[in-house]
Design a protein that fits this description.
heterodimer; A: alpha+beta; nine-stranded mixed sheet; 15 helices; B: mainly alpha; 14 helices
Chain lengths: 507, 334
Amino acid sequence: MRKLFGSLMALVLILSFSLSSYAISQKDYIIIGTTDKIASLDPAKAYDYLSDNILQNIMEGLVKYIPGTTKIVPAMAKRWTISKDGLTYTFYLRKGLKFSNGDPITAEVFKYSFERVIRLNQEPAFLLSDIIKKIEVVNKYELRIHLKYAFAPFINIMAFNVAYPVDPKVYPKDKLYNGIPVASGPYMVKKWVRGQQIELIRNPNYYGEKAKTPIILVKLYRNANVLYIALLNKEIDVAYRTLLPQQFSQIQKNKNFKALVGPSPFIREIVFNVKQKPFDNVNIRRAISYAINRAQIIQDVFNNQVSPLYTLIPKGMWGHKPVMPHYNLKKAIAILKKLGYSKKNPLKITLWYSPSHYGSTEASLALTIKNQLEATGLIKCQLKSAEWATYIDYWTKGIMGMFLLGWYPDYFDPDDYMWPFLASSASPQMGCFYSNKKVDELLLKARKETSIKARTKLYYKVQEILAKEAPYVPLFQGKQRVVAKPNIEGLLLDPVQIFRYYLLYKK
Amino acid sequence: MKTYIFTRILLSIPMVLIILTIVFFVLRVLPGNPVLAMLGPKAPPQVVKAMEHQMGLDKPILVQYANYLKDIAKGDFGKSTVTGMPVIDELKQKFPATLELTIFAMIIAVVIGIFYGTFAAYKLGSPIDVSARIYSIFVYSFPVFWFGLMLQLVFGVWLNWLPVSGESSPFMTPDKTYTGMYVVDAIINGQWDVLKDSLMHLILPSITLGVVISSIFVRMVRSNVILTLSSQFVVAARARGIKEKTVLFKHALKNALPPILTIMGLQFALLLGGAVLTEVTFSWPGIGSYLVSRIHARDFPAIQGTVVFFAIFVAIISILVDVINAWINPRVRY
């Protein structure tokens, strides 16, 4: 026992040592807290938000978005040309580009990186493998890419992480790389404690403008509650993704923090399996879309932190045309009555949702929709839930007739909001099984067309058909939210949802 | 004794094999395709098929099972579908954090259990005894995450004394990693500020877990000490005029300890798995929260690997407990 007391006393003594002050000055680093996780920092595999976002700060591709816009500008390629038939893209690289370890970045490196992504065939690989036919190195600084078919959003894909170059000396040809990434962007990774934190420092070999803060530390939290407490406890300087709506509202009232809201390309929708009864009846789908009160959902479930959406293309993106019917209970009732439903013989349906994949608000969202549908007095809606892995399995097998889904784009082009949802070849993967020859024709034409004006017209037409046939009910568009200590500057909530650490600094 | 140890090890093999088999088949019976969970709805069907082929999921289930056993025998737990990393490497990274938390929680639980339980038994029927009984029922029924959250609010947010999450403060990780346990590594490195920081981070999660577990120990120690206090040898010791403190700790508690130690040993193994909620509440980067997140992703290799890892660990602990028991008490040997 005495020994035990001795040990305890020693522990107390150790605890009473004064904590030596950090060697680094407070202004030299910013700590960002998040509930997201890092799966892989190999561009051939990264396909979740945080992995992608870290890559967007430590790597760069041939082209990039101007911060705060959806406009694409040259990055490692100083310019590019597109052949008249839209099938060949030639990129002219800057000279003297280097990775963080000093290895050169040339056209050969890009060819190696793209072919590696296709060969490894991981999550984001289809973005390249579906479109690229051949990659050709014209010379050290000239890269030519031949496409299988004309695809207007190809340049947007080149701005995505899957098209970032990797060092052939470090990243194996036919294996994923799990070590510390070799950087080509404003930051490089200094230390990565998996599942806990990642420390980024300035990349001395980056050709562009240097990052404003020398060190960025990204800390990972298990859930919104811990992140919220860590924020209140001043453990972090910035909280980005994701506090609960109620927590964010609380912070907005707290003078010790600043809270910013910005646009997001994230959308939510109800999906109907149009092959399954009763959702194979377009009138039922239309009645349901009339019965949905988006304003109430936004206020009651999300504390006004999302905005209503009346088409699949988000607001702020060209081609957006809000075509879906607004809330009209009378019309919903009239359609249902016409179909022969009554209080004694109500329409019996099931709404599926995934309880955790879209955060803890999902159950409330499902319940609110159920109540809205039942407010017609002619619908009995049952709620069912399944965990994400099961949920995907169910919708691809066509088990679920009506379910909640969300969509986050890979490339910022209306094509990514139309093709996967409405093209006959893609919609079964979405659990919708929608097929319409006219829509397929319009979508293919829009892919091949290079003029934005002409493409906009085509997408308007597709959206008009979407409104008539209602295979989906778009619900709302997300908003980005960030909370920071008052001395943090450079917070930019980008429409393409890249959180740029290299712009952040302390006042 | 050697035969006994050998037999115990031999008997543990079928146990691990049964667990491994159950997990393997249950995962495949449950709905949810790991490839779809990994790729999401955006991947074209041919990519899904190619990935299924790559992972061997298109083979007959018995072939998959045979391959799995073959790999396990070679010490290959497969690669995680989420990160693409070898599962064994991920487990090696996560396990030390869980082990560290469990050891500290166990120390807290044992200290509370032994002192509170012994005094309650000694003062049988007194307010201390009543409070011990209330404590063990009350604390056992605590939801771990709620208790953790309360501690975070009081000591983290309101009083601002202690950190509320993670294993360390920014830039306060050990320079060199030897064991993966920050406290041990900090001592080996001689980084006293890192040691202090790690201990500060351990306080709230280990109190949360330790206090909840201590309720079982308080009850167990109390009833065992009550039993030994009524034994003949205690009466004899008292009659000889030996000090009450000595009677209590040197005679009664010492004799009550063996069965308690057995249960504590097993509890330690179980605690490793039971740390899940604490790990989630405190963003503790351990194996518990790893397993939960991988179940959501249907990461077959990671789930199987973790369960087998746990099974082997529990088997080792129970063998150790049995061996210690056999060593103390030769009657239990084969």
